[in-house]
Amino acid sequence: MFSPGATAALSSSAGLPAQERGGLFGVKGLDTPADFPRLAVQAAAEVEQLLALAVAGEANGTIRGGGFVGILDQMSDSICLVMDAAELCRNVHPDPAWKSASMASYETLAQLVARLNMDVSLYEALVRCIQRAQDTNGARHLLHAFAVCFYWGALQRRGLQIYIYRCIYVYIYVKISIYIYVSIYIYRYLYIYVYIYINMYI
To answer: What's 117-169 look like in SS3?
Structure first.
């Protein structure tokens, strides 16, 4: 059931001029359901650019410590601005069009977050940045916290997935091998049986 409080939150800015409203939930440019996919794509593109900047900047030495933290923070802001609004909208908005658009945008950005969590190049750049960083304004501590989250929250799962895929591969390989060997065994004895039969009775 859509609550009166949520209804008030959605409609509280409806009577204000567009430039003062700033869009649904205060998100600039979020004025119609069709704006959700556009903003999600825009956020994803910004994050991809920031990711490339972070990895390349760390590699060529132009980005260190606090600069790397700042880029990670910008990536988070770009995603959360749209994703948080989409999460709220899909749960509380009474209009099916808004709910559908917000759901699609949320899933798009959730997939992006999952991919970022598995991005080995970003993790390796982060580790190198920690090794070289001076602990200015706690930057090294923050980078280390990011690295721990990466390792335990994502890369470990990636290792588990690789292990599972290898187990599946081995299982399929063994199963096929057994099938082939059993088939050869059967055909061999069938051949011997036929050969003996022919020589005995023909």
So the answer is: HCCHHHHHHHHHHHHHCCCHHHHHHHHHHHHHHHHHHHHHHHHHHHHHHHHHH
Q: Which two three-digit tokens encode residue 140?
A: 């090294």
Highest mean pLDDT among 22-31, 158-167, 192-201: 22-31
Q: Is the pLDDT of residue 59 over 90?
A: no
Tell me what pLDDT residue 66 has. Answer: 80
Place of tokens 């039969």: 197
Residue 19 C-beta-side C-alpha neighbours within 13 Å: 0
Whole-angstrom CA distances from 97 to 35, 101, 133 are 11, 6, 48
Cα–chain center distance at 101: 19
Both tokens of residue 173?
């390989």
